[in-house]
Amino acid sequence: MLSIRQRGVEALKRQLSKHEYQKLVDEKAPGSHYVRNIIAAFITGGAICSVGQIIMMVLKNFGADKETTASATSIIMVFIGAFLTGINIYDEIGKFGGAGASVPITGFSNSIVSPAMEFKKEGHVMGVGAKMFLIAGPVLVYGIFASVVAGLFYFIWKQVM
Amino acid sequence: MSEIIRAFLLGGCICIIGQILIDFTKITPARIMVIFVVTGVVLGIFGLYQPLIDWGGAGATVPLLGFGNVLAKGVMKEVDETGLLGVFTGGVKAAAAGITAAITFGYIMAIISKPRIKR
Asked: Cα–Cα–Cα angle for B89, B92, B98, nearest 5°?
């Protein structure tokens, strides 16, 4: 049995060597982690979109029309993202896949559940309710604002043409 | 099967763009998400995103670019049907399913699950 202090020293040593190792790796192979990140993002993003495609095909088989299929697919994908975040799996996918996990719509629902879980102790209103939109808020603000600008642009273009 | 492979390829490539932006410009993932949605709106309004959906299916609709495209498509449809009022109703109307699902499932999952203890 190691004493608490010995264990602390051991942990420190391990942490240091891990850090030094990472530094060494970065020096030896600059840019190699870029390649790794890109491949991981491709695989993760591709896999998530394939799941979406399978859901779409299943819904189409049930005879859903185009619009219903599109809406239902996003609802299901959003649910999957929220569920995997809730059981602490999506953050692991994010660690591996980087942008491959955050760019799909499942990443959007992850960005809602993750901060809401973390700030639960601050209460239901200012904790969960407010922190849900930490990242989703800006996405909705700029997305919806852009759609209004686009709509106005389209409206004027229609009058002129 | 070929539909799934195309979705994989297109979705993967779109995510590579996001990853390159994160690694080479130090833009945070949150900003990437904002940029992708706004870019999707711009592509959608000019009809440039539909060809990608036609080719790659969910590979184009699942990434946040597709969410932006839905907003743009929705606002154009509503402007066609109701005129100026559509500018304000179209975007959110079309994206309602995704937004409401995200809020509902997000809230429920946040309430019933516990965050993992950080080491």
From this structure: 155
